[in-house]
Structure formats: structure tokens, C-alpha cells
């Protein structure tokens, strides 16, 4: 897909033109060197000064530890290791070690409704070190964390746009050459509840299927009145498949003649979201989940509760598949 959009990306490398790694590649090599520096001579493989600092930063974020507590832990660890160890002596040294890696840092405000409808008063700042990015995240309440997933994804979307439009200088270690790498996000992989948060289509109630949408064959149970998706799969079989006419193994006395729902293109989905008035999380606020704030027709004609941030990607509407379900993860949760 990227090659179709940018034909110049297929240009061949010059055979004998070897180059020095670019600045980012040099920084990456420095990270590798730091990761390979043992804490002390003879320590277990993989136990480096960098890995210890990273794990301590993760512990601080996961447990909301104070700087004084981190100083005490660093002092204790250094005291109990052999005398020639190179572990950090305090939290400031840990910070400096992590900062020297050149990790990007930014502040993300998760309170999308500007502090209204908060479950408790007050706010706090959490410093996270996750997957190579240091983020200082201001939150107002636990409810906002789940509702503001798109806010957390903003740095990712920004980088994906940069990868699509400009690309990044990358070093090809086998050819010893630098080149401009451009890339695209093909799809997301998640379980079914996360599918709803990523796509913007609520994955519960009668219209829970993001593929069938308002053309669903789901029905309500007679007494419990709960939506039921049983026997909605036979419509996807070939028109002359014998299972379509079986009346006993599925719903009693039911024969399926209907065809599967037609594929809805990305352009049509985008127009549908705009037609029903679904908005981005930053516009609809953190309390978008309440019925009064849902787009008109929600639950009856559609299940759009927001416009997913992924629609900001210029190629998102052109993808044939935008979201995948992780069946191994779902089966593990369902049958364990």
C-alpha cells in the first residue's frame, strides 16, 4: 500500500555506497551498548545497568512510589550488590540514565470533560515509562481513564501520520546505508470489548456486531429480553448450503434464506459516522457513554458512540480490514 502511494520508496539502494549510521541509529546503538553493560562482573546475562533502571522506573509508575522511596530502594540495591557494581545510587541518577536515551516526553491531559462529572475531587500526575515513551499523564478520576482511550492514542496517531507523510531516516545495517522509511498501520488486534473502544461502535446490545450493524439477525429472548446472537452465522453460508434448511439443530423451525450483509466501504462508514453526528472523544467529552449524550438513533439504527481517532489517518477509510479479533486471547479468557 505504501509503495502504491509513494513509488519512490521502491528505488534500489546503491550497491557500494556505504554510510555512517544517522543520529537516531547511533543513539539506538548507544542504547544497545548500555543494555549490554553488566551491573557487575559475573552477573546473570541480561542484568544490565539500563535494565535495572528501566524496571525501577516501571515499579515507580505502577505503584505510584515517591522519589524518597526510590532513593531508598536504589541505596539498598547498591549496598547489597558486589562492591564493583554500577547500579544507580539514587532516583536522580536513574532519571538521568533514562533521559540520556533520548526518549520522547510529553504531557497528556486525559480529563476530556475539563474536570466535570468527576468521581472524586482532586487530580494527580502519573509518570509512565511504557514501550520507550515517557508520558506525564494528568487524570481526574478512574472513569476518565477508560473513556479517554483516544487521548492516550494521540501520540501514536501523530507518529503514524509522520510515518505516512514524511517518514523517518532509518539505517539498513545489512547494506550499511541510510534510507527514508515510510509505513502504515494495517489493523488493530484486540478482544471484543476493546474492539468497541478502538472502532467507536459499541459492542453490546442488539446491534453489537460491527460487521452486521443494523442488518443484524440478533433477537431478544422471550422472557429475559436480553439480545441474543445465536444462529446469526448461517446467513454467511453459501445460498444452497444444506445447513440453511435444517430446522432442528439451530433455532427451532427456522430456515435461513437471507444473504450475508454487504460489505460497507470505508467512505460509507465515514459518511455514516458524520450522518449520525458521532464526535471525537475530545469533543463529546468524558461522559459520552450516557444515553442523553449519544448520537440520535443510537441503539436502534446504529451503535456509533464516537468517531474513532484512527479516522484521522489519511488511509484508514481505504483499508479493507481495520480491526482484528485476537481469537487465542478470547478463547483463553472464555475457557480458562
Determine the strand fraction and express it as a percent band. 5-15%
Distance between termini? 39 Å
Tally of contiguous helical segments: 11
Unreliable residue runs: 112-146
What are the salient characteristics of this protein?
336 residues, alpha/beta, three-stranded mixed sheet, two-stranded antiparallel ribbon, 11 helices, 9 strands, elongated, Transposase_21
How would you sum up this structure in a few lines?
This protein has 336 residues and is α/β, with parallel strands linked by helices. The chain contains 11 helices and 9 strands. Among the domains are: 20-102, no CATH class; 188-335, no CATH class.
Give a verbal description of the structure:
- The chain has helices at residues 2-5, 23-35, 49-63, 67-80, 91-99, 142-147, 149-165, 192-199, 266-276, 281-284, 327-335; strands at residues 105-109, 124-130, 133-139, 168-172, 177-181, 188-190, 219-220, 227-228, 323-325.
- Among the domains are: 20-102, no CATH class; 188-335, no CATH class.
- A three-stranded mixed β-sheet has the order 1-3-2.
- The model is unreliable at 112-146 (pLDDT under 50).
- The protein is 33% helix and 12% strand.
- It starts with a helix and ends with a helix.
- The protein is elongated.
- The protein has 336 residues and is α/β, with parallel strands linked by helices.
- The chain contains eleven helices and nine strands.
Amino acid at each position: 500500500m505504501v509503495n502504491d502511494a509513494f513509488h519512490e520508496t521502491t528505488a534500489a539502494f546503491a550497491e557500494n555506497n556505504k554510510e555512517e549510521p544517522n543520529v537516531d541509529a547511533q543513539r539506538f546503538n548507544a542504547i544497545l551498548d548500555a543494555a549490554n553493560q553488566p551491573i557487575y562482573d559475573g552477573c546473570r546475562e541480561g542484568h544490565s545497568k539500563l535494565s535495572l533502571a528501566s524496571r525501577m522506573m516501571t515499579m515507580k509508575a505502577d505503584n505510584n512510589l515517591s522519589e524518597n522511596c526510590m532513593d531508598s530502594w536504589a541505596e539498598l540495591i547498591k549496598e547489597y550488590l558486589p562492591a564493583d557494581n554500577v547500579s544507580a545510587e539514587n532516583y536522580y541518577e536513574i532519571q538521568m540514565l533514562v533521559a540520556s536515551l533520548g526518549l520522547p516526553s510529553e504531557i497528556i491531559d486525559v480529563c476530556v470533560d475539563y474536570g466535570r462529572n468527576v468521581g472524586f475531587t482532586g487530580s494527580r500526575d502519573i509518570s509512565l515509562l511504557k514501550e520507550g515513551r515517557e508520558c506525564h499523564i494528568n487524570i481526574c478520576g478512574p472513569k476518565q481513564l477508560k473513556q479517554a482511550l483516544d487521548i492516550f492514542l494521540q501520540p501514536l496517531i501523530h507518529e503514524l501520520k509522520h510515518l505516512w507523510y514524511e517518514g523517518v531516516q532509518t539505517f539498513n545495517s545489512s547494506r550499511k546505508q541510510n534510507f527514508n522509511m515510510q509505513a502504515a498501520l494495517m489493523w488493530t488486534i484486540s478482544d471484543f470489548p476493546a474492539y468497541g473502544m478502538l472502532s467507536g461502535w459499541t459492542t453490546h446490545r442488539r446491534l453489537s456486531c460491527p460487521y452486521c450493524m443494523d442488518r443484524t439477525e440478533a433477537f431478544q429472548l422471550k422472557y429475559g429480553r436480553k439480545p441474543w446472537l445465536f444462529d446469526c452465522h448461517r446467513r454467511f453460508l453459501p445460498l444452497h448450503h444444506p445447513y440453511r434448511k435444517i430446522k432442528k439443530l439451530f433455532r427451532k423451525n427456522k430456515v435461513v434464506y437471507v444473504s450475508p450483509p454487504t460489505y460497507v466501504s470505508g467512505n460509507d462508514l465515514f459518511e455514516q459516522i458524520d450522518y449520525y453526528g458521532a464526535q471525537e472523544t475530545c469533543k463529546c467529552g468524558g461522559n459520552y457513554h450516557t444515553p442523553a449524550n449519544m448520537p440520535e438513533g443510537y441503539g436502534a439504527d446504529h451503535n456509533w458512540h464516537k468517531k474513532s481517532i484512527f479516522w484521522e489517518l489519511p488511509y484508514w477509510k481505504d483499508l479493507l480490514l481495520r480491526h482484528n479479533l485476537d481469537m487465542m486471547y478470547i478463547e483463553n479468557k472464555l475457557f480458562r
